[in-house]
Amino acid sequence: MLKQLKSKIGLSDNLKKIKVKPDSLNFLHLESDKTFEWLINSLQVCIFKSKLDGTILFVNDYARRVFEFDTVEELYASKALGIYKNKKDRKVFIQKLKEFSEVEHFEAEFITKTGKTKNFIFSAILNGDSITGMAIDITDDKTAGEAHENSLSILRSILESTADGILVVNKDGGIEDFNNNFIQMWRIPSSLTETREEEKSY
To answer: If you average pLDDT over residues 1-23, what whole number do you get?
Structure first.
């Protein structure tokens, strides 16, 4: 797998072009293998290679840690389908790969060994029966976004539950929000509030 990945980025061809003494060639290949392996395992991105049937051929150590497996061999044994939260997502992913030979920015949820849900966005290419790609864990971004939405929802509930008319402005004096009591108290035309709601939706 290491040799196949090196050929993807042209490392093997580059080695052939380097002029070295015969007794240094084995050392050069050994050092290149070590460097490449270190590079792949140092990336804070999941690197993977699998087959269409779900057999996992390679993952880097970062992927093992993200999916909370003790060893990469344990992750290999789970097969790709086993870590998808929604099995239909893999079906859609495979269909796109077969149709276009490559997929970019595909988002799906996965399950770790301990049962945690992780959100990933990944890109991959199909070469024969092999899928090679990388995936980025966006779970924290999703969680932050959901927390922000929940905070806004709570704020809206507080605004509407009070008997006072409330207008929320930012530090620049721009209107951020208001409740219905504020509209009624100041008899603001519905045409103005509708325009404001349209602006907030963008």
So the answer is: 42
Name the residue ranges covered by the structural domains of the chain. Answer: 1-42, 48-137, 142-200
CA distance to 6, 17, 19, 41, 179, per residue, from 88 (Å) = 32, 46, 51, 29, 42
End-to-end CA distance of the chain: 46
Q: Are strands 117-127 and 167-169 parallel, antiparallel or unpaired?
A: unpaired
CB 132 within 8 A of CB 48: yes
State how far the Cα of 83 lies from the Cα of 88, in Å rounded to an integer. Answer: 12
Q: How far apart are CA 53 and CA 8, in angstroms?
A: 22
80-to-17, 66, 86 alpha-carbon distances in Å: 37, 14, 12
In this prediction, residue 165 has a pLDDT band, given cuts at 50, 70 and 90, of: confident
Task: Give CA–CA dist 184/173, Å, rounded.
Answer: 22
CATH fold for domain 48-137:
Beta-Lactamase (3.30.450)
Residue 93 is predicted with a pLDDT of 94
Three-state secondary-structure class, residue 169: strand
The widest CA-to-CA distance across the chain, in whole angstroms, is 90
For 87-139, what is each residue's pLDDT tens digit? 899 999 999 999 999 998 899 999 999 999 999 988 899 989 999 988 888 88
Does this model's pTM top 0.85? no
